[in-house]
Design brief:
six-stranded mixed beta sheet, globular, alpha/beta
Length: about 190
C-alpha cells in the first residue's frame, strides 16, 4: 500500500493533482482510491486529498501516521498535516505562504520558520519555490504540477507515464505549460537529491 496526501488551500489545484496521481498509479496496475476532504475550499480554506494505491485498497482514507508522501501546496498546510506522515516519510512543500483568515483578521499569527521545522522533523523534506518555477513555465497556476514533478523524481514510475497522465487530465490549451512545469519540478527535485 502506498499512501499519499495532497494538502493546500482552495483553488490551488489539489483535485487536478490527485487525478494525475491516481491515473499514474492505475497505469501501474494498482487498485486506487482517491478521496477529497475539505473545509471552506471555495473561500481559501484547507483542502486535503488522499490517494491510496496497492493490491486491494479498501478505504480511501489514509490512517494517521501511515502517509508515505505529503505533497503540500502551502507551507502552513504541510506543518498542519505533518503528524500524518510515517517516520521517514517524505514531504514535498512549496515555500508559498498564504495567510489564513485568523491571521488576516489579527486573531492569530502565522507560524515562523515553518520550513526549518519541517526539515528538523523525522521525515525527508524537499522545499521549493513552486510558484516561481510555475511562473517560468508560463503560469503560476501550474505550481501544483511543479510539485507533482518533484514527487515523480521520488517515485519509480517512467516519466512518460506522468506525461500521459498530465495530457489526459489537463485541458488541451494548458498542456504545454503544465508539462514544462512538471519538468522544472522534476529537475529541481533531482538537483536537491
Amino acid at each position: 500500500m502506498y499512501n499519499i496526501m495532497i494538502v493546500g488551500v482552495g483553488g490551488q489545484g489539489s483535485l487536478l493533482a490527485s487525478r494525475v496521481l491516481g491515473a499514474v498509479c492505475i497505469s501501474r496496475g494498482y487498485d486506487v482510491k482517491v478521496s477529497e476532504v475539505h473545509g471552506m475550499s471555495q473561500r481559501g480554506g484547507s483542502v486535503v486529498t488522499y490517494v491510496r494505491a496497492g493490491e486491494d485498497v479498501a478505504s480511501p482514507m489514509v490512517p494517521e501516521g501511515e502517509c508515505d508522501m505529503l505533497i503540500s501546496f502551502e507551507a502552513l498546510e504541510a506543518y498542519r498535516y505533518l503528524y500524518c506522515l510515517r517516520k521517514g516519510g517524505s514531504v514535498i512543500v512549496s515555500t508559498q505562504e498564504i495567510m489564513p483568515m485568523p491571521v488576516i483578521t489579527g486573531a492569530a499569527k502565522y507560524p515562523e520558520n515553518i520550513i526549518d521545522k519541517l526539515k528538523s522533523a523525522d521525515v525527508n523534506c524537499l522545499a521549493m519555490d513552486a510558484v516561481s518555477l510555475a511562473e517560468s513555465a508560463g503560469t503560476a497556476k501550474a505550481s501544483n504540477v511543479v510539485l507533482l514533478g518533484a514527487a515523480s523524481a521520488m517515485m519509480d514510475v517512467d516519466v512518460e507515464v506522468w506525461y500521459e497522465a498530465i495530457k489526459n487530465n489537463v485541458p488541451e490549451k494548458f498542456v504545454d505549460e503544465n508539462l514544462r512545469a512538471f519538468e522544472l519540478g522534476r529537475a529541481a527535485a533531482q538537483q536537491k537529491n
